[in-house]
């Protein structure tokens, strides 16, 4: 990862996780530039030695990949054919009369994007927004207190906010624009899609997503230590509403 940081001139690189396929696993790393809110560069490897840069995720690729079901194969060049797709969906997603086929590499890009959007999280105050609009790591962040760390409202989705734009001026009155510029986890749908647990005698707070099984976030209260990692099959738990 240090070599990746040097070669691609990233400011920060972190190990994102692993998506397990039938014949192999994809190891994923993410790199950040000066603006933390800018789209992240994503790389994958099959052996943790040779890394390949993934193309950026477009809305079109994400929409195409959402229709796919089943496990990943572990081969980036594997092609999926849409068997159970309506003519209407095929026309909407595949213009110019293209064959409804998608490569596994494109599905990998879309899945990482979906997971980051849905369950990629940071503690409140870890990042600040400058008056010019760029987002940077907060140097004054010393971690959440233990009582704050147990609340879902103390964690934010590290992606473009959706619910925040729909809030009334009265609801926004108590928010600090420099730190509360992201959506918090307390209104995530379905309710109950996160579990909060204390480990190591209450010294580590662990959040697990039940929607994307395999995503684990940790934070050591009153320290700067936090992060998340995903180890799973890359499949969304669509049965969750029936399990709660």
Automatic annotation (TrEMBL):
<protein>
    <recommendedName>
        <fullName>Radial spoke head protein 9 homolog</fullName>
    </recommendedName>
</protein>
<keyword id="KW-0963">Cytoplasm</keyword>
<keyword id="KW-0206">Cytoskeleton</keyword>
<keyword id="KW-0966">Cell projection</keyword>
<dbReference type="GO" id="GO:0044458">
    <property type="term" value="P:motile cilium assembly"/>
</dbReference>
<dbReference type="GO" id="GO:0035082">
    <property type="term" value="P:axoneme assembly"/>
</dbReference>
<dbReference type="InterPro" id="IPR055316">
    <property type="entry name" value="RSP9"/>
</dbReference>
<comment type="similarity">
    <text>Belongs to the flagellar radial spoke RSP9 family.</text>
</comment>
<keyword id="KW-0282">Flagellum</keyword>
<dbReference type="GO" id="GO:0060091">
    <property type="term" value="C:kinocilium"/>
</dbReference>
<dbReference type="GO" id="GO:0005930">
    <property type="term" value="C:axoneme"/>
</dbReference>
<dbReference type="GO" id="GO:0060294">
    <property type="term" value="P:cilium movement involved in cell motility"/>
</dbReference>
<keyword id="KW-0969">Cilium</keyword>
<keyword id="KW-0970">Cilium biogenesis/degradation</keyword>
């Amino acid at each position: 990862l240090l070599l990746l940081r040097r070669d691609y001139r990233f400011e920060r690189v972190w190990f994102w996780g692993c998506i397990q396929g039938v014949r192999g696993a994809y190891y994923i790393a993410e790199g950040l530039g000066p603006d933390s809110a800018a789209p992240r560069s994503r790389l994958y490897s099959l052996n943790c030695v040779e890394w390949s840069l993934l193309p950026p995720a477009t809305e079109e690729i994400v929409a195409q990949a959402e229709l796919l079901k089943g496990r990943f194969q572990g081969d980036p060049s594997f092609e999926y054919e849409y068997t159970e797709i309506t003519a209407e969906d095929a026309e909407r997603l595949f213009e110019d009369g293209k064959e409804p086929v998608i490569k596994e590499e494109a599905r990998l890009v879309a899945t990482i994007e979906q997971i980051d959007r849905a369950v990629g999280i940071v503690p409140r105050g870890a990042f600040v927004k400058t008056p010019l609009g760029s987002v940077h790591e907060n140097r004054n962040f010393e971690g959440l207190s233990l009582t704050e760390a147990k609340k879902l409202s103390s964690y934010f989705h590290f992606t473009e906010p959706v619910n925040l734009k729909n809030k009334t001026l009265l609801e926004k009155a108590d928010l600090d624009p420099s730190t509360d510029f992201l959506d918090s986890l307390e209104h995530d749908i379905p309710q109950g899609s996160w579990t909060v647990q204390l480990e190591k005698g209450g010294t580590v707070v662990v959040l697990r997503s039940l929607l994307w099984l395999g995503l684990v976030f940790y934070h050591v209260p009153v320290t700067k230590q936090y992060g998340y990692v995903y180890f799973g099959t890359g499949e969304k738990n669509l049965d969750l509403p029936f399990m709660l």
